[in-house]
Design brief:
Length: about 350
Amino acid sequence: MTRSTDSPLNSLLTKRPTSPKVAVVGCGRWGRNLIRNFHNLNFLYGICDLNQEQLKEIGKQYQPDISMTSDYSKLLTSPDVDAIVIATPSHTHFHLAKLALESGKHVYVEKPMATRVEDCQVLFNMAENLDLTLMVGHLLLYHPAVNRLKQLISEGYLGKVKYIQSDRLNFNPFRPDTSVLWDLAPHDLSMLCYLLDMEPKGIVSASGHRTSDDGLVDVAHIELTFPGDIAGHVHTSWIDPNKQVKLIVRGSERTAILDDTLGEGKLQVFKKEDESQPIKEFPEYLAIEPLKLECQHFINCIKSGQTPRTNGYNGYSVVKILELSEKMLKEVPYKDSQPTQ
């Protein structure tokens, strides 16, 4: 499997629409955000969901202009639909995305791209062979503050990066995936690799805890090592009453903190001229909704044939780390054991 680069595709197999029409599949909490953005950009054609009540409810906002259906096959066969946006539970991603590609539709699939590395490779190869756009919803790669931090790192403003850590903690009673690892960690893993412009060379350890009656891992830690002796850590949780979304990048000259729970000043940089009184800076960045930028990028890639920033290979790389981490978790099975006497 070879990695694609951000350059226009040369193949003319697919006729690129100048004003692509998008259908969003799944109108849950996150699906509604995608629906809102594609509608505001004037590219939304239809909405699909198996839940009739949910479909009826959201239809009040968008009908009669937007098509509503619970039959996915109608979208696949419709000549009016150029692209499918998949915002359904992760275990359905591969099947729905594969059907869409087979039907000649461009595809945006929410993270994770699939739940198996083999399935990611199938989708990647299909999109390449059919000259169709395949984009994965790794939202943080379109976050203005993340991109400003990436610029600071690449310019050497922080010095040599020594350590990077991402904490994503909240309280989630719905538990849509098999573990918190698959639900939240794709955000952090994609962001760490993007900021450092490299993939980890290894997973040092992965550990998790089950604290709820459903037996799912709801707290997880992944220790990574990157080329150049850079250590990485990802901490995800479904059980924290106080939401925390914080990234720390420790460099030889400066330390950057990105706190996405703040309204303003999310990105802060500290220079330790005096360890007891660090100097704080607030680098500027554009205050634009990341999801709006991501949706617009998908449309632009469909029209131009440009490879998405979060393309199939990007999705494949993240799932590979998740799969290996999950394997490590299973090698140390949870035991409801009693202390020995």
